[in-house]
Amino acid sequence: MHSPTNEVKKVFGGYKYSQNGENLRMGELVKIMEPNPQAFELIKKAQSNNTITYILVITSGGLIGWQTGTNSAGGDANWTLAGIGAGLIAIGIPISLSVDKKKKQAVE
Predict the structure, then answer these.
(1) pTM score of the predicted model
(2) CA count, 13 A, side-chain hemisphere, 76
(3) In angstroms, what CA-CA distances link 77 with 37, 58, 81, 84, 86?
(4) Where in 1-108 does DSSP place strands (E)?
(5) Where are the domains of the chain?
């Protein structure tokens, strides 16, 4: 029986993980890491932070897009909401970087 061939490849915005040539998503990484308690703990933290980042991205995009669309349509945009969206992006960036770091540490 052959052992799996794992690959970590640096790509724009982070890393790409694959096993035997197949790209791995977060849920698959979690399953693979389960037998190793230390790696599993890191990947679970990465997964939680990934969920937080996703929520922040959707919310910030909505706030900014809604106000930009309102302004483009000739309406009175609430730029405070767009500013809150920009602030959420600023909060999300370090969390996203943490996700990449924890995923890479777990794989290594």
Answers:
(1) 0.78
(2) 0
(3) 50, 19, 9, 13, 15
(4) 6-11, 14-19, 22-23
(5) 26-107
Rounded to 5 degrees, what angle do the CA atoms 97, 99, 100 make? 65
Amino acid at 28: E
Average pLDDT of adjacent 10-residue blocks, the chain of 108 residues: 69 82 88 91 94 95 96 95 96 93 88
* Contact by Cβ (8 Å): 29, 41: no
9, burial (CB in 10 Å: exposed 0-12, middle 13-18, buried 19+): exposed
What span, in angstroms and rounded, lies between the C-alpha atoms of 11 and 5? 19
End-to-end CA distance of the chain: 22
